[in-house]
Amino acid sequence: MYRVRQKLADQRVADIPAAVHAAMAKARLPIKPGDTVAVGAGSRGIANIAVVVGAAVSYLKKMGAKPFVFPAMGSHGGATPEGQLEVLEHYGITEATMGCPLRATMEVVQVGEALGLPVWCDKIANGADWIGVVNRIKPHTDFKGEIESGLFKMMAIGLGKHQGAKQYHAAMVKHTYEKVITTVGREMLAKARIGFGLGIVENGYDETACIEAFNAADLEAGERRLLKDARKWMARLPFSDLDVLVVEEVGKNISGAGMDPNVIGRTLHTFENFPRDPRILRIVALDLTEVTMGNATGIGNADFTTKLLAGKIDWRKTSINVLTSSAPNAAMLPLTFETDQVAVESALGCIGLTPPEQARLVHVKNTLMLGEMECSESLLSEIRQSPNLEIIGEAHPLAFDAAGRIIPMALAH
């Protein structure tokens, strides 16, 4: 194995609170002094999310408004108010850090209609004078379109809570993801009091690269534009074909699908046309992140896993999530082994006629952190031919400790 550094898009925001304030000042917001504003924060592991949401709250307070934060997430956190507040707390979003109240409910009210279905909105948020949504804009894990994962998705799935998320995902089987999210989002803009959307785009190193705010009239065009940047800057694996991908950790904070399908080339939604790029023969998932709180949605995309990971699964949270999204196969448990080492060795035994020592194998921490990785010797010629790849360490075996746990990327040299 060789330690390899990948050159990725690296533009970043130097002063995040200042960037948030400048973006919101530029957006011609309709909010007036004394207005109550519900600020929605989601369940994804977005870089600096507490800083961004906190800056939005401080700007609203500076305007003389009365903001509060609410969880804008569908079925995550076990589909309970307490669970969703706990998710926000994991990201550092609390009443103490935000300097404003946090309010959570799973109750929804109907605010409109789309595709012949009711459009739902968080009851507490709908009671405010204005609603603001804060989310990362990026390629979606299940479909391709001009609007994918971002502010429109939060207005539909996030503000719709469990009831809306379940209904919209069911509708997607017939109408496709993009049509449902776009149609419902437009109805929310027309019927709910959406005061602003704050869009975040990250660079290839999972850092804040761009922050823009939009009023309701500009939100759709703004999101479409930022998605193009997000797609261009997103980190990907630098190889089109692999025998084995070893992923140290998976979880909802990494991707809605545990491992980002845009990185691994696999999706569990068979009713969407999703490109299989790269083509990875076997995927080994070793552990769950702490922040995912037992939600193992997407583990069905792996071929091999460990008893350590399986023992951390909260099947209630996982089942609620996958049933809400109409993807029960996302929770299918792969072959499970006692140790990381046995799981990896088993994967290497299932790659056809290729001897294990000639396998095209890559070891990564997770599908968000792809700036550095371990690559097998068989990939050396491609690495040396790429101007974006650099070998930064001596050749070494794929290392495991005495208990059979893989030596993590953070420690491997």
Describe, in plain words, how this protein is organized in 3D.
The chain is α/β, with parallel strands linked by helices. The protein folds into 2 domains: 16-233, LarA, N-terminal domain (Rossmann fold), CATH 3.40.50; 236-391, no CATH class. Helix content is 33%, strand content 20%. It contains 13 helices and 15 strands. The protein has helices spanning 16-26, 49-62, 81-90, 95-98, 123-126, 151-175, 177-191, 216-233, 261-264, 307-312, 315-324, 340-348, 380-385, and strands spanning 2-6, 36-41, 66-71, 108-114, 117-122, 130-136, 194-202, 208-214, 241-247, 279-285, 304-306, 335-337, 361-364, 372-375, 389-391. The strands form 4 sheets. A 6-stranded mixed beta sheet has the order 10-9-13-14-1-15. A 5-stranded mixed beta sheet has the order 3-2-6-7-8, sandwiched between helices. A two-stranded antiparallel ribbon has the order 4-5. A hairpin with a 2-residue loop joins strand 4 and strand 5 (117-122). Helix 1 (16-26) crosses helix 2 (49-62) and helix 6 (151-175) packs across helix 7 (177-191). It is globular. The N and C termini lie close together (10 Å). 53% of the residues are buried. The model has no long low-confidence stretch (mean pLDDT 93).
Number of domains: 2
The helicity comes to 25-40%
Q: Note the main sheet.
A: 6 strands, mixed
Distance between the termini: 10 Å
Give short descriptive properties of this protein.
413 residues; alpha/beta; Rossmann fold; six-stranded mixed beta sheet; five-stranded mixed beta sheet; 13 helices; 15 strands
